[in-house]
Amino acid sequence: MSDPVWEVFRRERKGQPFEHAGSVVAPDADFAEAWAREQYGRRGESVALWLVPREAIRDVEDWADEFDLKYRRVDGYSIKARLKEARERAGTA
Amino acid sequence: MNEQALLELADDELILGWRESEWTGIAPLLEEDVAFSSIAQNEIGHARAVYELIVGEGGDADALAFDRSLDEYRCAPLVELRLLDWAHTIARRWLYETADEIRIAALKDDPDAGGLAAKIDREEAYHRMHAEMWHARLRDEQRFKKALMDLWPYALGVLPPELRPELVARVGLPEVDAIERGSHTDELAELWDEMTMVRRSAPAGAQW
Fold first, then answer.
1. Is the entire prediction scored with pTM above 0.90?
2. Please, which residues 106-165 of chain B have a Cβ atom closer than 8 Å to chain A?
């Protein structure tokens, strides 16, 4: 059995969101930590890391859109014309 | 300042850092290659800091590190060994870190070296985490157990006699005769030759 993959997320500065940095292959959490510290923190590029076993991640990548319900999407409305009208009414055009 | 103890510490860290960097590029796992090389680099950094403390401000730490004759080095035989086997390499790493922690703790109250000892210890905490994780993983493997037994007399020789009982308690192996500092292994001569080559070829100081 090969070792599991650990996805590594890093926080670059305090207060910033964690972002995906890459991954390490390691037999357990301790090895994953030791190796991730070297790969993703040694040069001061991170203030914190999250290590997540890849198998704990649920993949979501299929999106059914069979009926072209484009009004649900941001590109479904064209507000350009209506915005122009509204501005003219308000005298700010 | 106990200059002799500091010189032993610095020489141990320099030679071990040198030896362990011999794994760079050929360690058994890619991630470990990076981690192990980084630790080796840290050890050489500790050596430099201690040499600088010994020579004092304006002194030449490089000269102390590289311009001595072979028999003036005070490193323990443990760090001199050229180990091209992972079980022994990890056994040495773990034994050395355990001994080193005891030695550094004993330096913490030293008025001259205490500050530096505390600083080194903060970085060694990560080295110990790395060594402990490998030890936990390999402790039941026959090859690793044999490696520990092979290196145990050398590990005792890293510490002065008064600190050895603590190492015995921590490692859990029966006390044996230590392989003491003072004489060097044949492997060190070869390493010295390589390590000091540039300094000897340019006695006035190499320009980079």
1. no
2. 126, 129-130, 133, 136-137
